[in-house]
């Protein structure tokens, strides 16, 4: 399989905008204000690591009809000019007195009638990437226009991936698959965990990641303590379970899955936990269908783990995936989001083995009309032992 | 030189909190609400790449006196427990109906008197990392307590680095120095730019980066077009100027500097541009003193470039550095921030060589009582040609 071409054709971006405008019409919004890297990327195709600098806000306005308008720091003009966006308005940022406030407000006035509504993502899993004092000024300058919550507008559109997007996530998954296959080269008894994390990142880059936005994991005797700590210098020991998890990025899209390995040997509890996770993942993969709710799939996983005699971990057991490492919905008992054809999801069961010892397993899928299609290469059914 | 130990002693965190509380007292704030990775890390020592997931908000409250309180998703409890923070309150996030809102509001009620003030960073270079609708609910639930802008509180404290912080930034700079020294191994005529970016990231990891949050650059005949575009597959050609810029991270602290290389040969315009940048950087390094304003240093750089017959680039010509790739202040004509002893800064002059061709040079320094101390290893005075 060859990698997909970089970027997207203009037609794909136009379809996205048109889908957003359809949702905006239903919600009676006259413009959508977007400020975060994934939202701006989704609409414009503007892809850069420069977001790492928190210094400057960036804005894209999607009007009720017609093309989006970018209101951005002048340092981004050249790169934005290479996208399909024609209306690009810039200011010299950071500006201590007016960091785009007047320019953004004026663009809002151009696009939104005085009695109109500005849609802004304000709900779960969103944030506003601009100074909140400046937001208050923009709202004031835009009055009598009002602001309403556009979380559902952006989420119902972004959560359904196009085939082109799915190919990009698949390409990111292939990178991680290839890097996971190389873990036996560097993870062995005596190797310090921080060195393993480093070697794994190198492998991800060498296998085709543009950059590695996320690597996490853990290692401990028969299981690990948590999955978000940075690596320490403790050497791997025989009997450890090592987990590596990655969000490698290729052309702006993430994979997000993990693999577990036993170092030297695996005890029965670890083997049983691994087997239960594998069965529960299979259960989710074979059961998931469009029309189920996120909470339903959570229930499938929990039930499968319990049927295997395992103790399910808390927290969410999977989530959306795409332009960011994690997207909505969340596989939790409370998330009633409908699972729909075209969603890309992680299936991520976790179990508690003993106090302070857990194990987590993760695969990436796309939900088709008929069920799950794997994007990651299915992990082996038995815990792999690295000699 | 050996690397500094990981993390900070509790005493360092207590000094930071005490400095924040001193500024809070002057600003008459009864608690400080922090939500971003660098602010949370600064106060607590909580370091994780898990912030890459935008799903969950995280909160730290610094009271007017006494120890901070962490109000965080339960997935972070274990890691937060390893820090010096004793009061950790958790909820199962993401929660569709109440994603920490009640818990945070209740913590605010515990710490802030009814007629008191909650400080929140609201100004330039800040953002609120939580859903804005939830923020509105927190503000409502916390009434009659009021919110005021704590941008200056956090910035005046964070901008002065301790010796322990300076050592961490120095360690990150050493990583980048060593990786830049290896650029001749992989950057040559015919090498595609995206491969060079990839090899450079590998070198950064191999030389000791924990992770590579930022790599940018450019390449073009006699100069490059911009400095924020991702790399394309165009092979380097003889006469190209290649620039690589990095924010490599070690123990949570960034470096941020770049290096320029000529591929095969360099034309006179490129050599002159490079020389002017070098002279302007020297001018900034030798002139900077505590008590100057950011705008004053911008002026020094622009004047030095003009004296060399070069055309200064727009935008900022340097900035703060530390827990993020870029921090305030900004070396612009408008930034009146006082430069103070203990600030870590980038000196980043840029020139326009021709339409669509620029060159940018960058070094990292710490401002001492007597002037600049280099943290990066000073770039050579002449543009290095890679054969």
UniProtKB/TrEMBL annotation, chains A, B:
Signal peptide positions (record): none
Domain of life of the source: Bacteria
Its EC number(s): 3.4.-.-
A Pfam family: Peptidase_M24
Gene3D superfamilies for the chain: Creatinase/methionine aminopeptidase superfamily, Creatinase/prolidase N-terminal domain
MF-aspect GO terms: aminopeptidase activity; metalloexopeptidase activity
SUPFAM superfamilies in alphabetical order: Creatinase/aminopeptidase (SSF55920), Creatinase/prolidase N-terminal domain (SSF53092)
Keyword Hydrolase: yes
Domain annotation Creatinase N-terminal: ranges: 16-160
Domain (Peptidase M24): residue spans on this chain: 167-367
Keyword Nucleotidyltransferase attached: no
Keywords, ordered alphabetically: Hydrolase
Record-given protein name: Putative peptidase
